[in-house]
Design a protein that fits this description.
216 residues, 25% strand, single chain, SH3 type barrels, Arc Repressor Mutant, subunit A, 6-stranded mixed sheet, alpha+beta, 9 strands
Length: 216
């Protein structure tokens, strides 16, 4: 589950009823992306109801409670360690904020897993953390969500790409893309990024299964 989907779930539990448009405004994404997030939560077993009409809206069944039946102890441990990894490589820290929310489910387990991560999990991948809040990374993330093409200036050349995923390597962060083939672009070498209106279908070869990837 993406962090935004978890935030969406908590928001729905808090406000009781809302609309696609209000959620899109709240999370700064399109209505299409909100619907994809709702569909994903529904596949995970969250009883989300979408009703049309003047009294309609989006809401979760009143009987639903977010508890350890949704996240198993293994899930919580995995999330805690993943957040520790993210905080180790990123300028923007997320772990404390997310763990405070997860503590509503199982405070004792979260405290234990967080201590384990601090004591036994050391990340030493790169000399400088990555700033995912730059305009380039913000544009990349938007295109991930909205499936829109991106025009980047890379080493003084322009490329139109379909961004597929980030790839973290020992020497830095790359973006796995499709243009006239599958390419990796090192994000620190991207000078500018401009979101285009054209969209793409996410039916690419996953990075880990692709033996024909070129470096730019």
């Amino acid at each position: 589950m993406r962090n935004r989907q978890f935030e969406l779930l908590l928001h729905l539990l808090k406000v009781k009823k809302t609309t696609h448009a209000a959620l899109a405004h709240q999370f700064e994404v399109s209505v299409k992306t909100i619907q994809r997030d709702i569909d994903q939560l529904a596949r995970l077993g969250v009883p989300i109801i979408c009703q049309r009409g003047s009294n309609g809206g989006i809401f979760i069944e009143e009987s639903y409670k977010l508890n350890t039946s949704f996240f198993t102890p293994n899930d919580l441990q995995t999330i805690t360690f993943a957040l520790s990894l993210y905080d180790a490589i990123s300028v923007k820290k997320q772990k404390e904020q997310v763990l405070q929310k997860l503590a509503l489910i199982s405070p004792d387990l979260i405290q234990l897993f967080e201590q384990d991560a601090q004591d036994y999990f050391v990340v030493d991948l790169m000399p400088q953390p990555i700033d995912l809040t730059t305009s380039v990374h913000t544009a990349i993330q938007y295109c991930f969500d909205e499936e829109q093409l991106l025009e980047i200036q890379y080493n003084q050349e322009l490329y139109t790409i379909a961004p597929i995923s980030y790839v973290l390597k020992a020497d830095g962060l790359y973006i796995y893309t499709f243009t006239d083939g599958y390419y990796l672009f090192k994000t620190e070498n991207i000078q500018t990024a401009r979101i285009l209106t054209e969209t793409f279908e996410r039916d690419f070869i996953p990075y880990e299964k692709n033996a024909h990837i070129l470096f730019k």
